[in-house]
Amino acid sequence: MSGDRKTVIKGNPSQYVKLNIGGSLYYTTIGTLTKLDTMLRAMFSGRMEVLTDSEGWILIDRCGKHFGRILTYLRDGTLPLPDNLVELCELRAEAKYYCIGELAADCDAALSRRRQVQAEPICRVPLINSQKEEQLLISSSSKPVVKLLINRHNNKYSYTSASDDNLLKNIELFDKLSLRFFGRVLFIKDVIGSNEICCWSFYGHEKKVAEVCCTSIVYATDKKHTKVEFPEARIYEETLNILLYENRVGPDQELMLATSSLALSSYTSDEDEERSGLAKLRSNKQSNQ
């Protein structure tokens, strides 16, 4: 503007000055502007010329959006930083322009912390597509491992009506378990590793200790169909069992053997009793004839 002129500002610290920062108007003292060793001190201590308009407003060609924060920092020596990432970057740029080194450093530190938080995922789930990758992950893990093999396209038959829904349920349960136990168990997902369609595998101390296959073939009158199941209770049970392998010593093998032997003997005795009953029925039938 034709009335703009350059002048030197130097006065009493209590003297007020009028600032026009990119169209935003501020009113403050020379003492505030010269409190810290910044470019503003150089401008208002007589060391630099400043541009003023015909009404006495000192003109600074910067965006005035954050200049209020700049003044607050000059007055108090501290400032609550904005939560918004864009505003934080804008404030850092203004702090650097006015050579307010400590405020710029505070902004840099806040941005660095934010990047670290954003870059650190809550839970990592490796995707594997070969047996070699699987073996490498399992052998190098200090945790027990749960692997879900999921690949709908491995099927050569048509699916039963509930199969697609059950596939999704298996995936959702895997996601839920991985978020819940990620600190104690390594969860991995196999997307093209074999001819299976949906299968859970559980590893402890680098060895497979359990498996839950969720697919089967059912026969209709005209053709075969693939059925996908969602054995939720069994998957939960095997996941909890695998936590026994967190300890490098492992679970008590004698107890596990005794438990499995008891279950086997119980099953065998029931089966023998049923066979004995059938034999008696046949014998009675033959004697009556």
UniProtKB/TrEMBL annotation:
UniProt xrefs under SMART domains: BTB
Coiled coil: none
Protein's GO biological process: protein homooligomerization
Domain BTB per the UniProt entry, residue ranges: 15-115
InterPro entries: BACURD1-3, BTB/POZ_dom, SKP1/BTB/POZ_sf, T1-type_BTB
Origin: domain of life: Eukaryota
A family per Pfam: BTB_2
PANTHER family to which the protein is assigned, alphabetical: BTB/POZ DOMAIN-CONTAINING ADAPTER FOR CUL3-MEDIATED RHOA DEGRADATION PROTEIN FAMILY MEMBER (PTHR11145), RE57120P (PTHR11145:SF8)
Name of the protein described by the UniProt record: BTB domain-containing protein
